[in-house]
Design brief:
5 helices, four-stranded antiparallel beta sheet
Length: 165
C-alpha cells in the first residue's frame, strides 16, 4: 500500500500487488509527482479513511426497512439508503458473511469489496479535479496497482464540464 497527497491536498491510498516493490514504488512516486501530488510515508493519510466492507444494491431490489433488517441480521454495521442505492457497511472481517447472506436474499450486488472510505472530503476546482483524474488514470494504468482510493468531492457542475472536455 502506498499513500500520499494529490492535487488540492486530496489524500490518496494506492493498493498494489507486485513482484518488484522498487519498480512499483517508482511508478507510484512518478504518478504522484508528475500530476501535482506527493507520495508520503506509510500511514501518512490512512488515518483519514476507515477500512470497511461495502456492499451496494440498487434501491429497486428492496425497500429501505427490508434491506436494513436483512443487513443488520447478517451482521452489517450500517445501512445508508437513498432513492438510488442501499450501501451496506461491514467490518472487513464480516464482509464475506454479510455479502453471502444478502446475495441469498437479494441476488448479486451492484458492487462489493473491501474499501477505504474517507472520513471527510476535499472540494476541488476544475483544474485540480482534472489533475487528480490524470493522476488516478496514470496510477490505474500500472499493472501492479489494484485499487486507488481518494477523499475528493467534485461538484456536479465541474463534473459535467470535465466530462464534456
Amino acid at each position: 500500500r502506498y499513500e500520499g497527497y494529490g492535487p488540492g491536498g486530496v489524500a490518496v491510498i494506492v493498493e498494489a500487488l507486485t513482484d518488484n516493490r522498487n519498480r512499483t514504488a517508482a511508478e507510484v512516486r512518478s504518478a504522484f509527482s508528475k500530476n501535482g501530488g506527493a507520495m508520503g510515508e506509510t500511514n501518512s493519510v490512512s488515518f483519514m479513511f476507515a477500512k470497511i466492507g461495502s456492499v451496494i444494491y440498487p434501491a429497486s431490489v428492496a425497500g429501505n426497512d427490508q434491506m436494513f433488517e436483512a443487513a443488520v441480521e447478517a451482521g452489517a454495521e450500517n445501512v445508508e439508503s437513498d432513492g438510488e442505492t442501499h450501501e451496506i457497511a461491514t467490518q472487513p472481517e464480516d464482509f464475506i458473511t454479510v455479502k453471502e447472506a444478502l446475495e441469498k436474499k437479494f441476488g448479486a450486488p451492484q458492487s462489493s469489496g473491501i474499501i477505504w472510505k474517507p472520513s471527510n472530503t476535499v472540494s476541488l476546482n476544475q483544474e485540480q479535479a482534472q489533475e487528480l483524474f490524470d493522476m488516478i488514470e496514470t496510477l490505474e494504468d500500472s499493472d501492479d496497482v489494484q485499487n486507488v482510493f481518494a477523499n475528493f468531492d467534485i461538484s456536479d457542475d465541474i463534473m459535467e464540464k470535465l466530462m464534456a472536455s
